[in-house]
């Protein structure tokens, strides 16, 4: 299986004027291709290339940059067409910032990204030690690069083999913690620091008193990006530890689908403004995104359970299946715990959730992979008689999975 990911870095040294001019030319070529695609209702790469390639001959850049610009424009137009089909209002797409994307003609030499700029001239962009360490790993190949105003991103790929799965762990995402595990072991990750960052950022933004709305938006965007990067770093450490443990123990990872979770925290649902702000600011999907690409890079399978499959994961006892009961109001001793009448014991709701997710994820994983290569087998022939008929029998493991 081919796994891909990107490694990003800021510029070690400011790019030359030649690279900046090339990035600006690429932006203009993309916008011209988008304009031609909109005028001719073309969003496929083949048709857009036929229509736009001749129009880009005025740009004095290597030909493969023109092809990459048309490819990027085709992707933008295809995404716009999909949004329109789904009923979302869309504006006319337009690239406003200089950018350069290419998968042709470049190389890695002398600890730098070497790229052609035309007329048999090349420019070098130094790479930092982290980027060099990542791309120097065995089997890793650099497939393409992207230059922006802030830095460079390299798309890398390698062939990976799936780990031999011996179990599965479930992941339960909460506001202040991330819980992972199964019936054998449960691990808590404290992410309350991310909640503090969210609340502090909201407090700072609310304190702005400038009358100019444009300045307030600019400063708010700055603090928003800062908040996003800090939280992303916290989740990066958590996701790295989760994937590393799953690979070592030969486990797959199961997530529950949380599509539409924002609808639970809308205005008018009987919740306070501060509570809605915390819940709607929390990046529920970011942890899953990071775990998915890291797991794919290490060959760890991912199972995403639908909302129907995860129904009752928090309220059903993972041992006996009985419906669990909430603690009485004011019972501080059993905060976030549930009572099972059949088992006669208290269970932490996060532990209940991950145990149920892991159990149902294992059922899904076993059904998708199967425990045998054939559903029907023939009995081995014994003796010298070749005319002995083969008795067909159904594989027992298939019956077990379908029961």
- Percent range of helical residues: 40-55%
How much of the sequence lies in strands comes to 15-25%
Poorly predicted regions are 371-403
Number of H/I helices: 10
Straight-line N-to-C gap? 32 Å
Strand arrangement within the widest β-sheet reads 10-9-8-11-12
The backbone outline, from C-alpha atoms, is globular
Overall description:
This protein has 403 residues and is α+β, with helices and mostly antiparallel strands. The chain folds into three domains: 158 residues, no CATH class; 158 residues, 2-Layer Sandwich (Nucleotidyltransferase, domain 5); 27 residues, no CATH class. The chain is built from ten helices and 17 strands. The strands form five sheets. A five-stranded mixed beta sheet has the order 10-9-8-11-12. Strands 1-7-6-2 form a four-stranded antiparallel beta sheet. The chain has a three-stranded antiparallel beta sheet with strand order 3-4-5. The longest helix has 37 residues. The two termini are 32 Å apart. 22% of the residues are buried. The C terminus is likely disordered.
What are its keywords?
Nucleotidyltransferase, domain 5, 5-stranded mixed β-sheet, 403 residues, 22% strand, alpha+beta
A few lines on this structure:
By secondary structure, the protein is an alpha+beta fold. Helices cover 41% and strands 22% of the residues.
Topology:
Elements: E1 2-10, H1 17-40, H2 45-52, H3 63-85, E2 100-102, E3 107-109, E4 112-118, E5 121-126, H4 129-135, E6 141-147, E7 151-159, E8 167-173, E9 177-181, E10 186-190, H5 192-206, H6 213-249, E11 251-256, H7 273-281, H8 284-298, E12 302-305, E13 325-326, E14 337-340, E15 345-348, H9 349-369, E16 376-378, E17 392-394, H10 396-402
Parallel strand pairs: 8-11, 11-12
Antiparallel strand pairs: 1-7, 2-6, 3-4, 4-5, 6-7, 8-9, 9-10, 13-14, 14-15, 16-17
Helix pairs in contact: 1-3, 2-3, 5-6, 6-8
